[in-house]
Amino acid sequence: MTVVRPAEAAGSFAHEGLFYHDPDGLLAGTVPFITGGLAAGEPVLVAMPGANLRLVRAAVGPTDAVHWADMTQAGRNPGRIIPWVLQAFIEQHAGRRVRIIGEPIWAGRSATEYPACAQHEALINMAFASRDATILCPYDAVRLDADVLADAYATHPILVDDAGRRPSAQYAPAEVVARYNMPLSTPTEPVSTLAYRFDSLPAVRRFVTGHGQAVGLDEDRLADLRIAVTELAANSVAHAGGGGVLRVWHTAEHLACEIQDDGWLADPLAGRLTPAADGIGGRGLVIVQALCDLVRVHSTAAGTTIRLYVRRQA
Hints:
Elements: E1 13-20, H1 23-39, E2 44-48, H2 50-60, E3 66-70, H3 71-74, H4 81-92, E4 98-102, H5 114-127, E5 133-140, H6 146-155, E6 158-161, E7 164-167, H7 173-179, E8 192-197, H8 201-214, H9 219-239, E9 243-250, E10 254-261, H10 284-291, E11 294-300, E12 303-311
Parallel strand pairs: 1-5, 1-6, 2-3, 2-4, 4-5
Antiparallel strand pairs: 6-7, 8-9, 9-10, 10-12, 11-12
Helix pairs in contact: 1-2, 5-6, 5-7, 8-9, 9-10
């Protein structure tokens, strides 16, 4: 694989897709990226799934200058990555150019998770357009499906592979965001339903608590669930006609909770960026992303459906 230098001009943002075919290709594309950042005095974050993280970390060698994160934990919910991983690191090093490796899509990501992953990659371009940062996203070109790779061509303005570094002729991130703003699948499991208005939020909390207890959630996860669902229900009351409908069901792996109301999330970055410390409002959906294992959203002018997944405990 040809090693190439990323964009480094002050005030420029670069988002690059790295396509590798084997461990050697992964190392050839990532290790010089990391060491080049260190040599330039740039803070470096590497967030990759465990096996790849260990491989790259061993190749780089002992250093306290790189921040390492297991993406299977930090980015299990794709909607958590922009605000709580990337933005957090960039703002921690405000005033300096940063260099980040983020691998949010790996073989084994479920079909339920993937639409949020694809939207995440597209939204990076909008979220950080004015930031001094280079973000490199590795893709396993052997194990990932062709449709996933095609989405990667559409969400990364720069592509890096064995042929070198080049602009993507398929770059169209807004189209990817729109394509995956799809109606959510109808659950096949039995569904419990509760309609709510401004005076029934306590009933909402009792409703989700009962279902959480039924699948064995511990007190910490029950608290997370109550906060997340109450945030969304309260938002319905305040901004979406005064109420909505809550549906809850259990799958083999998750407790799923769905809020449906008449509101419209017109901003595709809603819930994907933390507001300024002195900002008022705008934190609800960001908090929900932090607390849940997966968040799926379908929003149009006709209404919004937000589905939360919390992993069941053994």
